[in-house]
Amino acid sequence: MIWCSVVRSPVNNARSAGPDCGPDHGYLFVIIESIRVYVAGRRRQVGLSPAPRRLAADDRLKRMLSRRQFLTASTSALAASVALRSRATTADDLAATQTAVGDSTVADRTLIQSTEARADLYRHYAARLGELAEWCDERRLAAQAAAVRDWLPARQSDRAYLFIPRDFRGANDAATTLPADALLTEFATRWASLRRNQSAALCSLAERAAAERQASLACQLMTEAAREDFSCRRAWRFLGFSLVGDHWQTPFEIEQARSGRTWQADFGWLPKTYIARYEAGERFYRGRWMPAAEEARLRQLAHDDWRIETDHFVVTTNCSLADGVALAGQLERLRTVWLQVFTGYLIDEDDLSKRLTAGEPLLADAAAKHNVVQFRTRQQYNDQLRSLQPQIEMTLGIYLASRRTAYFFAGAEQEAGTIDHEATHQLFHESRPVAKDVGQHDNFWIVEAVACHMQSLVGHDGYYTLGGADAGRMPVARKRRLQDGVYLPLAQLVGLGMRDLQNHPDIARLYTQSAGLAAFLLERYPEATAAYLRAVYSGRADSDTLRRLTGTDYPDLDRQYGDFLAALDR
Q: How far apart are CA 423 and CA 454, in angstroms?
């Protein structure tokens, strides 16, 4: 099976409760917020009509609330109250959700409650951080005040905010290392206390989310808990790290350290004794030291490529050592985000809850590493792969399931979004057992949809965002549905197999629509989407699977998707 990224499409890649707030507080907040919105005139709806107190069985999921209730506040307003942005939250809608029957309805209700509790938690935490920043201002601790105000990203409600443990596993030192100055010591103690309490609250909320079968939310909360508290063993262990001395390390990092190697941003894993000479421009190759240019020349003559190994990938490249290391780093970051978004695809929800409660790692066993090949030029890429994909010239990257390898080329023509797209195919295909011909007869759209959605991943200072009204293919998806009225109903889309989709005359339009639908489903029905992906990749899905898992008829999903897109404008 082949997945590939075309050269160009009409859409290019767009390249807070306080520590003393118990977990049950979020449930009360959901009710209070819903009544407040109702009394205020039912503002920020997504166009859903009022629901009766009890719904018919086949109508029970028509009035679901939006998944995210995100904190939106600028860092300059941390000391003030933080507004909670909401879409479609009315008293009638909440009542309908509460009285409806069926597993999907219960799952959506618990998701709403968990995300509301998360938002409430951060709202109170932001207020506490604001108070600490004011305390710093009063004592002329300008740098410390700025650090506190910058700690939480200013969130927008239309995208996910995700953190990568490798980016912050040393960040706690600045907050907890006690300096000699008494005033600075008091600041460090205050900030560390706030963060420890926040971390504990996030862990508790994650445990509740896992018990309620909200796998992705639980994984994200545990990642946020680790970011808040460097000493939170439970969170770090869950993420797969072990404390070695004063550093959290993965099993692969521990193995490399025992071999006397250390990670270098430009060179990958090197023996410690090599670092100075590598930084001076030398390379060790064929048993002797030589200039970097000489190594590159000899490797080219011998067709001896560089090989960069990381925790989950093996990158082979004839470009340069630095290029291979950079690509490996991008792939590792992508996998970390992918794991937080699609946790439910990888692990059974019951097993997740048991592991979290027992303080065990999310993933117990080390999986086989993913192979990636990077060519120096497009011509090399075309020549090597043309026999496997006759239309290889039309692609920027390709994942070949038969070879369990993703292929790319370097240069200005390459796009980061293409790498994220193809590597996403690889992660889904190789991270658990899958059928031989995924999506061969139907449901192939979701395979491309989630890969397109991952192209909206954007890196920021200390965090990443996924999705958003202005990210990836979403701007064009909104235009085509809302302005042009161009849309293939889900009832027809799910019936398309791989060949049907790839040979469709409007393939670019369907890819764009699929990307928008993925964003909608991951926000509104995240765990149903994970279950749908498991069914598709295991070969158990049919044209009715998505409807059954969401508990919503396809015409209603079509309507909800339109409402979702319209709400982005507001």
A: 10
- Torsion sign across C-alpha atoms 232, 237, 243, 249: negative
What tokens does 134 get? 């004011």
Q: What is the C-alpha separation between 106 and 60, in angstroms, rounded? A: 11
Q: What are phi and psi of 266, to 5 degrees?
A: -100, -15
Beta carbons within 10 angstroms of residue 9's beta carbon: 16
pTM assigned to the model = 0.81
% of the chain beyond a pLDDT of 90? 73
DSSP letter at 348 equals -
DSSP 97-155: HHH--SHHHHHHHHHHHHHHHHHHHHHHHHHHHHHHHHHHHHTT-HHHHHHHHTSS---
Average of per-residue pLDDT across 13-18:
34
CATH number of 2-10+438-568: 1.10.390
**Does pLDDT of 102 surpass 70?**
no
| Tokens encoding 467 | 């999705």
Residues 379-390 have a mean pLDDT of 96
Beta bridge partners of 107: none
- Residue intervals in the chain for CATH 1.10.390: 2-10+438-568
The tens digit of pLDDT for each residue in 298-330 reads 999 999 999 999 999 999 999 999 999 999 999
CA pair distance 540, 527, nearest whole angstrom: 17
| Nearest one of 476, 480, 566, 553 to 520, comparing CA atoms | 566
Nearest to 162 by CA among 467, 419, 452: 467
Give 226-266 pLDDT, tens digit per residue.
Answer: 999 999 999 999 999 999 988 999 999 999 999 999 999 99
Nearest to 114 by CA among 198, 214, 19, 195: 214
Of the two residues 477 and 81, the one the predictor is more confident about is 477
CA 368 to chain CA centroid, Å, is: 21
| pLDDT band, very low/low/confident/very high, at 53 (cuts 50, 70, 90) | very low
Q: Which long-range contacts (CB under 8 A, 24 or more apart) does 518-522 make?
A: 518/446, 518/449, 518/450, 518/452, 518/453, 519/453, 519/456, 519/467, 519/474, 519/564, 520/560, 520/561, 520/564, 520/565, 521/550, 522/341, 522/453, 522/467
Mean pLDDT of the chain: 83
Query: Two tokens at 292?
Result: 């970097």
Q: Write down the number of H helices and E strands in the chain.
A: 25, 17
Helix-helix angle 444-454:416-430, to 10 degrees? 130
For residue 178, name the pLDDT band (cuts at 50, 70, 90).
low
Q: Which residues contact 110 (CB under 8 A, 6 or more apart)?
A: 212, 213, 214
* b/e 537-555 (16+ beta carbons within 10 angstroms → b): beeebebebbbebbbbbbe
Q: Which residues contact 239 (CB under 8 A, 6 or more apart)?
A: 165, 222, 223, 226, 361, 362
